[in-house]
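User: Hey, my collaborator sent me this sequence without any context and asked if I could get a structure. I don't really work with proteins. Can you help?
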Amino acid sequence: MFTSRKIVNVKPLVNERVVYVKAMIKKSYGSMQRPTVIMFENGKPTKAHCSCPVGLSGLCCHVLALLLFLKHYHETGEKMQALTCTEQLQKWHRSSHKSSIPMVPH
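Assistant: No problem. I've predicted the 3D structure and written it out in structure-token form, which is a compact way to encode the shape of the chain:
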């Protein structure tokens, strides 16, 4: 999940002793996004929540991807977020099997 660059954005919310980190993470398939939140107390993750079915327990691939993102960012300062449409390789030259019209000479 982390290496496939599914994390769209990450925002911290700092309280007195508690830090909440919220991220929007793309689902494994498709372009829908899931909000994921991790609560840190004294610099340690204590609770987490994700909107996926497994995320109610606080231990799903979205939470783990966010933890790996934070660790990677802390160590390198590099953000490995989802690629924007202008950063991705263009796909217009690829033929689509479901909507392609066969070229037949007359």
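In plain terms: Residues 61-76 form the longest helix (16 residues). You can pass these tokens on to your collaborator as they are.
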